[in-house]
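Q: Sequence in, structure out?
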Amino acid sequence: MKKLFVLAAIIAAPGLAIADEIDPEVVAQIEAKLAQMECQMDPDDIEVEDDGYELDDVICKGGHQFDIELDSDLNEIGRRAE
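A: Exactly. Output:
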């Protein structure tokens, strides 16, 4: 029975990844915004939230690392130092 649940999770996992994919145009807009802020990140670390996006492990000028929250219009609404 336990093996059945593991198999079901493995089969369902690729479908979950597709649901979380972000429009490449939005990724480009986020990357452009970060460049203006003198920051960069791996696009794979962009997470879709109910009300916008969370950017994990953003590295900014001077080597500072943050998690940044953006609203659905890509306005910064929060920042936490890591």
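The longest strand covers residues 52-60.
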